Amino acid sequence: MSVEFIGYVSHQESSEIHLPKGPAVNPPYIAAVAQAHEYGGFDRVLIAHSSASPDGFQIASFVAQQTKRLGILLAHRPGFVAPTLAARQLATLDHFSAGRAAVHIISGGDDAEQQRDGDYLSHADRYRRTDEYLDVVKRSWTSDQPFDHEGAFYRVTGHKSQIRPLQRSHLPVYFGGSSEAAIEVAGKHADVYALWGESLAAVEETIAKVRKAAARYGREQHVRFSLSLRPIIASTEDAAWARAESILERAKDIVATSPNFTRRPKNPRNVGSQRLLAEADKGNVVDTRLWTGITALTRAAGNSTSLVGTPQQVADALLEYHKLGVSTFLIRGFDPLEDALAYGRDLLPVVRAAVARETASA
């Protein structure tokens, strides 16, 4: 099993230890971070989505222009544009990026976040809509004849697209969501199912659930798995843990003042955050070096658990997840630009060499 690394490109410089600065869309910064990931050997970069963020399609197109090899993983939330239009937009992006596009489907786990864009469907209905949405998107990508569709959420008559994805019959579909409803839809549609950084036992449990869901559609062998983490590396283990504590102290002021964190509910309703908080309740460190300090501080505001140690120690921890079936690691740092370069120099080559040795041995 090979290994893939995905980084993260934001529209401006910000993190748990950096208040947003510069313009809301900062092209020089976006270009620099994208190029740092390409230079560092990352396979893709994620372009995230929220109800307040700039348009991801345009950022993705800009990243494609600024790089030559780097893949793009565009987060996309079903329900706000027609699936036939989304299919054409994504296929067009694939052509302009020379076949480097993939889509990360996020149905939405936070009612308040959805309602900021006018979506008042229940959690269960959002995943029912996502299922139907992806049915239509994939059919638009592959149908040679005009087709009709009539479902609970969408009705289409005589649709036929002039644009298909460049790279194959459909773009790679990454899929996020930890609820039972999400896992069921992932089993049907996901090429890559994305987990947040939980303990080895929790990751193994979720992988088994997704494979069971995929088996109902004859897809058990077609789903790969991605894990999201925030590695903190240094030349010695003591230095890495000291850096983690420094990050936590700096983050306290940011979290106390930034609306990105002050608006978060004390008890988040989305299952993914609930699972991360359950890991944090086990202690500051889970397994050997899964650090939950930022998770507890931010009430699990997204990807927030870290592996802490030397590059070799963090690589060894990643390999334990790889043995469970994780083939993709979505990693980003608290100093986004500097950490991307450090990962590319010190971490990615170690993991790739170990995976290559395992593959040769097998």
From TrEMBL:
Domain annotation Luciferase-like: ranges: 17-327
One Pfam family cited in the UniProt record for this chain: Bac_luciferase
Protein name listed in UniProt: Alkanesulfonate monooxygenase
Matches recorded under InterPro entries: Luciferase-like_dom, Luciferase-like_sf, SsuD_RutA_monooxygenase
BP-aspect Gene Ontology terms: alkanesulfonate catabolic process
Enzyme Commission number: 1.14.14.5
One Gene Ontology term of the molecular function aspect: alkanesulfonate monooxygenase activity
Enzyme class at the top of the EC tree: oxidoreductase
Keywords in alphabetical order: Flavoprotein, FMN, Monooxygenase, Oxidoreductase
Organism, scientific name: Paraburkholderia atlantica
